[in-house]
Amino acid sequence: MKILICDQLNEKVLDELKTLGECFDISLSDNKDDEINENIVDSEIVVIRSGTVLNREILELAKNIKIIARCGVGVDNIDLEFAKTKKIAVTNAPSANIISVVELTSSLILNAARKIPQADLSLKNGKWERASFMGIELFGKQLGIVGFGKAGKLLAERMMSFGMEIVFYDPYIKDWDGPEQSTDLDTLLSTSDVISVHVIKTDETKNLLSKDKLDLMKNGSIIVNTSRGGVLDEDYLMELLSSEHIYGAGLDVYENEPPPNTEQFRNLNITSTPHIGASTKEAQLKAGLDTVENIKKILSGDYSVTL
Ligand code: NAD
Which of 129, 224, 231, 256 has its CA 20 to 30 A from that of 168? Predict the structure, then answer.
């Protein structure tokens, strides 16, 4: 069985995959696009992370493909509809990296509140500009979570320990009886001091935080997005930061990755990371091992782990 590995995996995970078939690891190839096109033709299993796009054009080349295994959660880089028509089983590892993404989210919130990256850079440039780095406290402030799934709930638990009041907007959660308050999106945006976005990317959440919605944000607030690019209007966010209508931002995900014009981030209170939410040793190992288990289940006829 030919297993095509398009993105980098943990060594232990590779060893496990080698017990299932012959592995072709093109993750470090300089010519990845060509290698995918060439190798997908006779591969039976294709393993990807977020760095590979399996669109219709590429999947049309695949003659033997049975399983697409996404080592991580988001599957917006796979043409699911077309995969279905080709009877390809698609599986992902939805909970493996969630702690890591929530820990990154917490740090982006703290970075924005205390301008830590700017203060660090200033000191490293030999300056001692204490007056420039007046921050804001999180204690007693309201955190608004947009999308209250696995990541949203874990973030709430963590930020409550900072003494934050938590509200959330999630139209798919009914009758919530936890300490967090459910609210509508406009109220969340106009009353929260910190907003964190944790929706999955769907047609409905695309540009969910449009210009009009971002305009509702409180003066001096902070917004962080570690979910998926394209759910908020990034260009308008830059305008709100430039005009200092909002205080700070943190982005790990972008509409286009890598994002163009990153120089515009330089003079703003924004901490920008290159989609590293899931990039911890622990998350990669867990996602990889979950992926191997899913592949084994599908090969044994158990399709409960497919999407
Ligand atoms: P999840 O499916 O557990 O939660 C998503 C929540 O969004 C659900 O509760 C759902 O009801 C809600 N939702 C759906 N449509 C909505 C809408 N229109 N308005 C408000 N809420 C809506 O997902 P999760 O595991 O918590 O992951 C959240 C996001 O984080 C995903 O987009 C995922 O791709 C992303 N993620 C990013 C990284 C990274 O590296 N930055 C890593 C892991 C996950």
Answer: 256
